[in-house]
Amino acid sequence: MSRKKDILNEALKLFNSTNTQCQSTNHIASSLGISPGNLHYHYKNKEEIIRLLYSNMKEESILSVSDLPKTIEQLNEHLKVLIAIQWKYRFFFKELLFLLSKDKQLDSLYKEDNINHFQRIKISIENFVDSKQLRNLNIEELEYITNSILLTWQFYSSHLQTLNIKFDKNTSIKLIEHTNSILNAFKIKE
Amino acid sequence: MSRKKDILNEALKLFNSTNTQCQSTNHIASSLGISPGNLHYHYKNKEEIIRLLYSNMKEESILSVSDLPKTIEQLNEHLKVLIAIQWKYRFFFKELLFLLSKDKQLDSLYKEDNINHFQRIKISIENFVDSKQLRNLNIEELEYITNSILLTWQFYSSHLQTLNIKFDKNTSIKLIEHTNSILNAFKIKE
After folding, report:
1. How far apart are the C-alpha atoms of A189 and B190, rounded to whole Å?
2. Per-residue pLDDT of chain B (190 residues; tens, 9 = 90+)
3. Backbone dihedral region of B134: left (phi > 0), alpha (psi from -120 to 50 degrees) or beta?
4. Which residues on A lie below 8 Å from B150 (Cβ)?
5. Where are the domains of chain A?
6. How far lies B154's CA from each of A156, B83, B109, in Å?
7. CATH architecture, domain A53-184
8. Backbone angles phi and psi of B45, in degrees to 5
9. What dihedral angle (degrees, nearest 10) is formed by the CA atoms of A117, A121, A126, A131?
């Protein structure tokens, strides 16, 4: 594995174990047993490391439009993958707004991706209507469900935290359950 | 108005205009034209100021159990008041998790209050069932609706921000609309 990749993995480990503020590039270098100069040869600053971690996370999680779930069962399979990715990059979700406020470039990137994410969730929900799993929805209902699912994806782990429920591999199932409850209210009863 | 109160109001103004990290106690003192020593006579540190702002916000927003909304119309009236309070203390919602991570005392306080808040929302929803505005709910549905409403209250303004929608006095209505959409799915159709 390359030195550049080593640094990225070490940073991810350290960010997840505490938070990004506690971990300077000097800490990351020292934890790897390399000099700060060596780290800065690969990365200009901490923001560059965080942006690369974000872009890796995005690559691991994104589906092409043709692969978007056609049924709620497929959505649940996809959510299991996403939950694992959210756990792997958990520092990012924990600090989301703070990180965006610290780096204008990350802020633009994330918001653009997120607006696309919103559209892709909407397409998935329309798929569930087409496959007769959900009843026909008016525009407001479609907007509401899409917002609810994206809100859950971005902030449900934080929400659990504010109720003193630790978000870990076991409780992450609650995020999937909540998403299913959103959809349940619009399901065609069999 | 007392000096102690002046400092609190100035801090709130400065926190809302940027964020808490950019504003040291020295900045707050200088903005008021007083010495740092004078500020520290009233407040030990920034955390103490933030905790007092939080406790004021709580006092302004809390309802006694007997005053909890009995109908969805009463909920909407209460939400209008809450939205104004959320706007007044907007820095707090914007930085929620970051502030909790910075101050263990605030963290315990907030989580305890939030768990109570969860219970109070649950009682309100049961009121709507009693007043025949919502259909009978099973335990999972009641938990789901309560979590959804609290999630919306805590993070909907942040969610809008991640979609590049500025949260202001005008868009705050979206938080009320979203809350109503959560309940709509369980309404008894007339």
Report:
1. 20
2. 699 999 999 999 999 998 898 899 999 999 999 999 999 999 999 999 999 999 999 999 887 778 899 999 999 999 999 999 999 999 999 889 889 988 999 999 999 999 999 999 999 999 999 999 999 999 999 999 999 999 999 999 999 999 999 878 778 889 999 999 999 999 987 6
3. beta
4. 159, 163
5. 3-43, 53-184
6. 10, 11, 15
7. Orthogonal Bundle (1.10)
8. -160, 180
9. 130
Cα–Cα distance between B92 and B99 in angstroms, integer? 8
Residues A159, B181: C-beta atoms closer than 8 Å: no
How far apart are the C-alpha atoms of B146 and B121, rounded to whole Å? 6
DSSP H or E run through B151: helix B139-162
What's this model's pTM, rounded to 2 decimal places?
0.94
Which CATH architecture is the domain B47-184 placed in?
Answer: Orthogonal Bundle (1.10)
Q: How much is the ipTM here?
A: 0.92
Q: Which of A93, A138, A159, A188 to mutate to test the interface with B (most CBs of B within 10 A)?
A: A159
Which of B155, B165, B177, B186 should we substitute to test contact with A (largest number of A Cβ atoms within 10 Å)? B155
Set of chain A residues whose Cβ sits within 8 Å of the Cβ of B152: 151
Total residue count of chain B as it appears in this document: 190
**Partners of A187 in beta bridges:** A134
Chain A residues whose C-beta sits inside 8 Å of any chain B C-beta: 19, 94-98, 100-101, 110-111, 114-115, 118, 140-141, 144, 147-148, 150-152, 154-156, 158-159, 161-164, 178, 181-182, 185-186
CB contact under 8 A, B158 and A155: yes
Distance CA B92, CA A83 (A): 28
Both tokens of A94, joined, read 């924990």
| A106's tokens | 């990350």
Residues of B in contact with A101 (CB under 8 A): 19
The verdict on domain A3-43 having CATH code 1.10.10 is yes
Which amino acid, one-letter code, is at A58?
A: K
Contact at CB, A178 and B147, closer than 8 angstroms: yes
| Separation of alpha carbons B100 and B111, rounded Å | 9
> Distance (Å) from the C-alpha of residue A8 to the closest C-alpha of chain B?
23
